[in-house]
TrEMBL record:
Keyword terms: Signal
Keyword Signal appears in the UniProt entry: yes
Signal peptide range: 1-17
PROSITE patterns: C_TYPE_LECTIN_2 (PS50041)
Organism: Zoarces viviparus (Viviparous eelpout)
Alphabetical list of InterPro entries matching this protein: C-type_lectin-like, C-type_lectin-like/link_sf, CTDL_fold
Alphabetized PANTHER family for the sequence: C-TYPE LECTIN DOMAIN FAMILY 20 MEMBER A-RELATED
Domain C-type lectin: 24-136
Keyword Mitochondrion recorded: no
Record's protein name: C-type lectin domain-containing protein
């Protein structure tokens, strides 16, 4: 272990992080819910998942831009015991349970698939109905959900996941043993690795200064003696 103490996360360290933003696509080809799911999974990520108000806002922007006027499938399907699940499943939204919902009215017990009406409300439908659909890759409008039988044919919304990367520069002050050579690349790499172990959700790298150095010795302030 290096003989050093990290006092403040450092002046030459660039922190990189990222998060997922869903992008939605209206597919104006009437299909049953199962057909729409297969199409989205083959060509995008899955049928549209709307897990929070930010997703809803992006979804509504897509719906308005696509001039959606009728019903369209989203990734909702009944999972039993009055629960509704997202098509994308547990890997994307906890256990896949649709916690955030926006139903126009209580789902019909005989309907097992979900979609969005022209006014944006969510409701249930027969799964063999043929509708357009939304693949995936808010606030304001009152868009809600509905259920239908999954064999009904409607348009649908698909989505894809877009990874957004952020960069942040933070300054670190390091107190090190006087025999430690901070100009040695092996030493700077070892220090970075030690910091990285404590921050494994982001990627870290040193920021090289214009003079080619990573670290600069902090000069001690001289205290003037009173005359």
């Amino acid at each position: 272990m290096l003989p050093l103490v990290i006092l403040l996360l450092s002046s030459s360290c660039v922190t990189l992080s990222s998060h997922i933003v869903r992008e939605y696509y209206l597919i104006d080809m009437p299909k049953t819910w199962d057909q729409a799911q297969s199409y989205c999974r083959e060509n995008y990520t899955d049928l549209a998942t709307i897990a929070n108000r930010d997703d809803l806002k992006r979804f509504l922007d897509t719906a308005v831009a696509s001039s959606v006027s009728g019903e369209a499938w989203i990734g909702l399907k009944e999972g039993g015991e009055a629960s509704w699940l997202w098509s994308v499943g547990a890997s994307q939204t906890s256990d896949g349970l649709a916690v955030y919902t926006n139903w126009a009215s209580a789902p019909d017990p005989s309907h097992h698939c979900g979609g969005m009406r022209g006014d944006g409300k969510w409701s249930s439908a027969l799964c063999n109905a043929t509708l357009p659909f939304v693949c995936q890759g808010g606030e304001g409008s009152s868009k809600n959900w509905y259920d239908r039988g999954c064999t009904s044919r409607f348009p649908f919304f698909c989505y894809t996941d877009k990874r957004v990367r952020h960069q942040m520069i933070v300054r670190v002050e390091i107190k090190a043993n006087s025999i430690l050579n901070l100009s040695d690349p092996a030493v700077s790499e070892a220090i970075l690795n030690e910091i990285q172990q404590k921050h494994d959700t982001v990627k870290l790298q040193w920021r090289v200064q214009p003079d080619g150095k990573i670290f600069h010795k902090k000069e001690k302030k001289k205290i003037k003696e009173a005359s």
